Amino acid sequence: MCSVKCMFIFFNTLFLASGVALITIGVLQYSTYTQIGTFAGGGLSKIAIVLIAVGVTIALISLLGHVGAFVNNSSMVTCFICLLIVIILLEVFTGAAFYIFRSRTALLQMNSGINSKAQEVISEYSPGNRHAINRVQEKFSCCGADSYEDWSESVGWENHDAVPDSCCVVKTEGCGQDKSLAHKKGCTWAIKLFLLKNLVWVGAVCIALGVAELFGVLVGVCLCLDIKGKNYENFS
After folding, report:
1. Cα 195 to Cα 29, 40, 47, 63, 149, distances in angstroms
2. Bridge partners for 182 per DSSP
3. pLDDT per residue rounded down to tens, the chain (236 residues)
4. Chain CA centroid to CA 48, Å
5. What single DSSP character describes residue 41?
6. Which helix (H) or strand (E) holds 152?
7. How many CB atoms are located within 10 Å of the residue 152 CB?
8. How far apart are CA 43 and CA 34, in angstroms?
9. Could you give the CA distance from residue 163 to residue 175 in angstroms, rounded to a whole number?
């Protein structure tokens, strides 16, 4: 029983670590997704919130498994197994949703939405969005929506012979007065690349967690049977 319990605790520790990792990533990425939402449309910050929620759920379920293993409580381990199976099913449905989303029509709609939203916020350059726009341009080393030339047509940006200092390759006070010092690529391209990389990363994490969770269910079942067998021997 000790070997099965040790395997279960080892798996569960990795499971707990993955939950803590997701929480950390979600917290660190929240501000980035919020700022990107200024360009790509509202709701992207929810991705970070989902990561945090999933991380918290995984951590709580893992703690339940740890307690059940340490106190040799088969009911708690059974509950852990059932919750893990539910999570696996949810991941399957999520994977199916991602597969549907990656269809050509959905990607074209997303691409069009990001393009139109980016052009809109650059054109308006409203006081409420300026900080987020500048942070995105600095973070992704980009300028404007499609290119730095977008600032020459912006209604909110009055100096059409210059660009914001956040566009500069090396940011200094007033560097935006010289357009040759600005990044040439637009922010929509940089944002799409970032989102695509994150989509691939999320898919890889889901696959890795799914495999680990299946193994966890098998080890959990073995531990549950061992606990029940041990309790039966003690009762006899």
Report:
1. 12, 10, 11, 32, 24
2. 168
3. 457 788 888 888 888 887 888 888 888 888 888 888 777 666 667 778 888 888 888 888 888 888 888 888 888 888 888 888 888 777 677 666 665 655 544 454 556 667 788 888 899 999 988 998 999 999 999 999 989 999 999 999 989 999 999 999 999 999 999 999 999 999 988 888 887 777 777 767 777 777 777 877 888 888 888 777 766 555 55
4. 5
5. -
6. none
7. 15
8. 8
9. 9
Which residues have C-beta within 8 Å of that of residue 73, sequence separation ≥ 6? 67, 227
Q: Are 220 and 65 in contact (CB under 8 A)?
A: yes
Q: Which among 98, 100, 105, 121 is positioned nearest to 41, based on CA atoms?
A: 121
Closest CA to 119 of 140, 145, 137, 148: 145
Which residues contact residue 158 at a Cβ distance below 8 angstroms, ignoring those fewer than 6 apart?
A: none
Q: How far is CA 207 from CA 37, 60, 204, 210, 232, in A?
A: 27, 21, 5, 5, 38
The gap from C-alpha 69 to its chain's centroid, in whole angstroms, comes to 31
At 182 the three-state DSSP class reads strand
Q: Which two tokens stand for residue 91?
A: 């991941």
Q: Are 46 and 106 in contact (CB under 8 A)?
A: no
Q: What tokens were used for 111? A: 């691409």
Looking at residue 175, the DSSP 8-state letter turns out to be G
Q: Which DSSP helix (H) or strand (E) runs through 173?
A: none
- Tokens at 51, concatenated: 């990561």
